[in-house]
Amino acid sequence: MSNNSLLRISPLRNQVPQFDQIREEDFKPAVIEAITQARENIDQIIHHSEPPTFENTIVALETASETLGSVTSVFYNQLSAAGTDGLQALAEEIGPIQANFGSDIILNADLFHRIKSVYDQRSSLVLTPEQDTLLENTYKNFVRGGALLDDLKKAELRKVNEASSTLGPVFTNNVKKSTEAFTLWIEDEADLAGLPATVVESAKQEAVERGDEGKWLITLDYPSFGPFITYSSRRDLREKIWKANSNKAFRDQFDNTETLLKIVELRHKRAQLLGYRTHADYVLERRMAEKPEHVMRFLTELRDLYKVAALKDLETLKSFASDDGVADLKPWDVGYYSEKLRQKLYAFSSEDLRPYFPLDKVLKGTFDHFSKLFGLKFTLATDLPVWHSDVMAYDVTDLKTGDFVGTLYADFYPRPGKKAGAWMTSYRDQGLFHGKVERPVTAIVCNFTKPVGNKQSLLDHDEVLTLFHEMGHATHSLLAKGTYPSQTGTNVLWDFVELPSQLQENWLYEAETLNSFAAHFETGEKIPAELIQKLRAAKNFMSGWMGLRQMGMSILDMLWHTVDPSMITDVIAFEDEAMKGTSLFPRYGGSLSTSFNHIFAGGYSAGYYSYKWAEVLDADTFEAFLEAGLYDPATAQRYRKEVLEPGGAEHPAILYRRFRGRDADPAALLRREGLLTKNLMSGGN
Questions:
Q1: Among the options 162, 470, 575, 623, which is catalytic?
Q2: Of 152, 325, 336, 626, which residue is most buried, by most CB within 10 angstroms?
Q3: Domain carrying residue 32
Q4: No. of H helices and E strands in the chain?
């Protein structure tokens, strides 16, 4: 038996990783050994004495690399949540090893011959919908991976895959390092003018942790940057930090310009080798949207709607700022004056809610919410090892039956080496694992405002939205029912994956949900009813502005992946041209693209539109709950059964029709945002 814990079946409950025994030096040998095991398994498939069948070829291939999957899931999750220079260096070694193995498998003619043999028999096979999907996906994955190419093109594709394998981690690391390199040290208390007390306390705590008790420290971590750009009355400091944020990984020692150009070049080259016009054509073949022109129609129609509203938002904001003596509104003023205008219009500030959202109460309320919806119970598992002392582990069970559902980890606070943002991830998906169907191992990772001293962490409403969002993803994973890990949980078409997460945000504007857990951290008082009314009234404030920004980022993503990269020589010039229909200010900062982790390192290439695409689905889905009752058991059970449990076993359009009885109504999004029109998504897809 190996003494490398990554290679052993964990003896812990649900076979969760033994984080307390994993060392950095374990990863590379574990990857090499796991690849050796996988090669042996695949050789057995190729040389099987019996003719190819669904079981001896398709299912056998599904499970052939499960040890490698376990090892690399731990590695890449640790790289994001607890990244060190050592892990980053390992990523640049492990990436090509793994890429070459992947190419060896998907370009193996003998293996593909067996897969194609089963695929060609599919009309005569008696398969469940889940099995039929696995067969279809396996065949298409090989074709899309180059199985039909000649030997010369296969060799070229292999080089592209190997070269691409290290670039995502390099891109992310540059963003992380550039973010950490900026510090705004404040020595004069007067320079803290306008900041809420909680922000000041956090800045003091940050300074203490960096070894200087007499100052305050503002960083580009969102819990620090976000409130500062929103509340600081020091316009010069807002400009300084805004420009620093917009210049992340651009024209500094961590410049991502060449990295992203190489990423785009290799993606385009791969697409063309495989017979696609562009990377976007390649990606969208396996999406609900299907084609770039469908996405661009969707985005441009929404852009035009949002732009009308955004221009009104901007003129209102300029007029308001002018009354405060600022005649030349700049981007670093938008957050500040929009917050002041919101306070004037609605007598409401997002900071008004923070005292009612202590993290412990929010977390309990979040668990109670998912318990009411889906009958889940979350029990703190103090006996399970974790990767950092901040992390908490939970056993998730079914309230009615007591059956074990899965394992959930929660990692909430920023720290050096941790990637910015928030995400849900999987250490193991529901399905076959060492011959048995096992339950999921899931994690949510966030960067919330940290506790200060003995004071607990107080979240703002956006952070609570983030928690519900990531828990929406987590329950999609945890509630999976299926046999084959590649198509359970969140392994669905990418522009469907945000439905379960974005849907959950809707409940946080409803009094019934907020009153169930939100309470003042000192007095225990519930949120006053009038404050909830103000939150709801202000929900669509500046929605045109924010919607246009999202359209700009989505269109930029699509253009990065539909334009011939050889035509792009200047990142800034390309961005300006791509976003000219959505930019309402001249350029004052650096490149958005050089820190756009989602599309260059996070799996959203030619897919950033999916957030807005899924909003159509989530708005329509939530209307079903509004019609029947926020926690109506029948609606929740139907949604769980028809949308969450099947994962990717069938096409999402089929799942959605089963849940809703029809296709999603695009007008639901417009009703929610106050932009109702007859023309959105005209022509369909």
A1: 470
A2: 336
A3: 5-165
A4: 27, 9
Contact 468, 505 (CB under 8 A): yes
Q: Please report whether residue 46 resides in a domain.
A: yes
For residues 112 and 238, state if they share a domain: no
Per the annotation, the verdict on 470 as an active-site residue is yes
Backbone φ, ψ for residue 582 (5° rounding) = -125, -10
The tokens for 125 are 């096979």
Condensed to tens digits (0 to 9), the pLDDT of residues 543-556 reads 999 999 999 999 99
pLDDT, tens digit, 9 for 90 and up, residues 420-467: 899 999 999 999 999 999 999 999 999 998 887 788 899 999 999 999
Look at the chain and report how many structural domains it folds into: 2
Residue 641 burial (CB < 10 Å; 0-12/13-18/19+)?
Answer: middle
Q: Give the pLDDT confidence score for residue 1 in this predicted structure.
A: 52
Determine the pLDDT at residue 503.
Answer: 98
Same domain, 142 and 92: yes
Average pLDDT value for the chain: 95
**Separation CA 515–CA 375 (nearest Å):** 20
Q: Which one of 99, 134, 165 terminates a domain?
A: 165
Q: Are strands 404-411 and 441-445 parallel, antiparallel or unpaired?
A: parallel
- Same domain for 22 and 159, yes or no, is yes
What is the rounded distance in angstroms from the CA atom of residue 145 to the CA atom of residue 154? 9
The HSE-up count of residue 67 (CA atoms within 13 Å, CB side) is 24
